[in-house]
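README: folding subset

This subset contains proteins for which both the sequence and a predicted structure token string are available. Records are stored as plain text. Below is the entry for Metalloregulator ArsR/SmtB family transcription factor (108 residues), shown exactly as it appears on disk.
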Amino acid sequence: MDESVNHEQKDQDQLDEETLFIVSQTFKALGDPTRIRILHLLSQNEHSVNDIAEKLSLLQSTVSHQLRFLKNLRLVKYRREGTTLFYSPDDNHVMNVLQQTIHHAQHH
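--- output ---
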């Protein structure tokens, strides 16, 4: 086998730093019980910060902080209606992983 072709293939198999960072941050996001609860709630319907706080018995500041973390990873998005922001999932791939993992845990 041509040595240069083999070397090029090896480079393609390696994950670049940005990809590694995003993947690790995504798993970090999914590794927190509060964020899992928020994402699970949003997977069912969009909700405002107040709505999430009320339904999950969390402080509004906690919800806002977690949503900011999730938004920075592009896992949630929002739409504005007047002065209220309504949050919803922004990444079906990650939401599918979350739902499959929840399903796995419930049927273990």
